[in-house]
Design goal:
Length: 127
């Protein structure tokens, strides 16, 4: 099992930007699709973005397309989520996760595909 630790969350004004990081240890991070999800209090978990193990494929939730960008640096065992033009609606706890199986060239938004999860990092966007 891979251990995931998110960082980079915080308080930002509406229109601002943040870059989240997801540091991985354990299994070979570079072999697994990675994804970001978010969950706000009282709401269901929402898919944000996913990137294939090679970085060649990405997928985004409709609400973040054009504003967020997912990337990864397998040499550093780290994934990233660049978030631009943030709005109060983006306030949530953001979680990174990795696929249950290696080398699947799939970038699904289905959380059941992902077997390892971080503890989350809080993002708060003020109006």
């Amino acid at each position: 099992q891979v251990l995931l630790v998110e960082s980079g969350g915080g308080l930002v004004q509406s229109g601002g930007s943040l870059r989240l990081s997801c540091a991985a240890s354990g299994r070979i991070f570079g072999s697994y699709t990675m994804a970001w999800f978010r969950q706000a209090p009282g709401k269901e978990r929402e898919f944000v973005a996913a990137i294939s193990w090679s970085g060649g494929r990405t997928n985004y939730g409709d609400s973040v397309k054009g504003r967020f960008a997912i990337s990864r640096d397998n040499a550093k065992n780290t994934g990233y989520l660049q978030m631009n033009s943030l709005t109060p609606e983006n306030t949530s706890t953001y979680y990174c996760s990795t696929d249950r199986f290696p080398y699947r060239d799939v970038v699904s938004g289905d959380p059941s595909m992902y077997g390892s999860w971080g503890q989350g990092t809080q993002v708060t966007v003020s109006s």
